[in-house]
Amino acid sequence: MRDVSRATGLSIYTVSRALSNSDGVSTASRDLVRKTARELGYVPNRAAQELRKNTRSSVAVITASTSNYYYLDLMAGIQRTLRASDRAAIVADIAAEGVYSAETEKALVHDLIQSRTAGVIATLTLSSQSVKLFRDWDIPVVFVDSLPPEGAVAVPSITTDNFGASMKVGAHLADHGYRDWLFLAYPVRWSTRAERERGLREAASEYGATLTVVESENDPASAYAALSDCLDSAGRPLPHVIIAGNNPMVHGALLMLHDRGVRVPDEVAVVAFDEFPLAPLLNPPLTVLNEDSEAIGVLAAQILTRVIDEQVEAERLSKPPTPSYRPGDRREMNAELIIRKSCGC
Q: What's the pTM?
């Protein structure tokens, strides 16, 4: 502010009020201050502002394509838990169209640090550099439905036993006698993909089935196109069953089957990962793996709240507010196979 004051000839008081958009400053002076500040490379330090307020009031939830219903129940659990500590959750979608980019992640992480977020709940694996930056700025991170990057051995995570869930699916499909399985999968950037595919491959091997993996970007339109291309290639017949990796994948698959007049489950069975409100209302009702994302959200928010409260107490005692994690902060939950009619039952 002294630099801007010196360059403009205005008082530090006027510069301060202009930069904070307060009253009592003329339009001409405000414009001059802002123009000079930009030329000098000044950026408001929100972290300092937040420290001055001595609050840790907002938590960022990093999602990856909010078209996935999984996040709606997850957010319900997070917000309900945070509300008890007078904190709020802010959603930051890192892949709004289902496509991830490292540049978007980097920009978002810098924005969250600048805004002095109290903590982060991340629904996809962030880069090691991002996690290091959060650690350097004493911002705690909890991963849900995803794993921390390699090396972040102490960082909390709430995941699902996706391998076991896939084995449940495989056993059920084998009971139906299905031997030709197609897994419509999102990219491996989402760490749940690996264990879901590994479980399906293991189940296919155990039950004498053939598994075809079709990958698309993480959105319904891409899933529709990828599945269409697979079925059109070399006149491939319909598989016995399509296993959709998540909500966007099943959305695209069901729309494609509908457009082609393919009857579910008479001509092809469909099973999907992740329960969502309309699943039992579809025709036929959809068989799903239910991860109970709301319960996962509650658990993640409880862990993050504890860590933040401990940081606040450390600051009160003039100690470093380094996030403190516990071994029990890493959990793996079971998923329930909800059997309806789309699988042939």
A: 0.77
